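Weekly modeling sync, notes
Attendees: S.R. (lead), two postdocs, one rotation student

Agenda item 3: backlog of single-chain predictions. S.R. asked that every request posted to the team notebook include the full sequence so nobody has to chase files. The rotation student volunteered to paste the first one in as an example of the format we agreed on. Action items at the bottom.

Example entry:
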Amino acid sequence: MDKIKYAKKHFDPDELRFLYWDKQLTVQEIADKLKTTDRTIIRNMRRFNIPCRSLSQRIQLAYDKGTLDRKGPKASKWKGGRNVGERGYVSIYIDPSNPFHCMCRKGTNSIDEHRLVMAQKLGRPLLSYELVHHINGITGDNRIENLELTVAATHGGITRHCTGCRTKHDLRLALRRIRYLESQFVKPLSLHS
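Predicted structure, as returned to the notebook:
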């Protein structure tokens, strides 16, 4: 990325004080207005001994402007509300007004997509002991035809006899054996010798 180059400017301390304290603009807003960087504004505020707002003042200003309480699609770092975790499970943002919001993890607005898909198919929120099994073993494949509703007591048996899950299990065992065998040799074996 090319850096934006700004010409050196001379700032009026009274203008900076007016914009920051009287007009209640943030450092970034002042920088945008004066066509410079926020670091330059901060450096000049220090140079002119213009005091910065305290943390509580900054928080109050953000609430007053309505920028602090933006959540979900209104948040500045919103990326669509879809997140794929380490194990391949997809979690999605769900609005608090949604009837399935009660299924969200405590203190969050996100829900595992496979649980939401099954709940929408059944037309009711899932109970905490109900589990959703991926038939083909691919945790990111949340098509309704790949999902099966079960409970914890029977889920282990389903996983043991499921062809997709069995393949993944066998693959994990093979990888464990390879790691063990490699650890027995001083120099690990390379597959591409």
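Discussion: group reviewed the output briefly. Residues 85-183 form one domain.
Action items: rotation student to repeat for the remaining queue; S.R. to check formatting next week.
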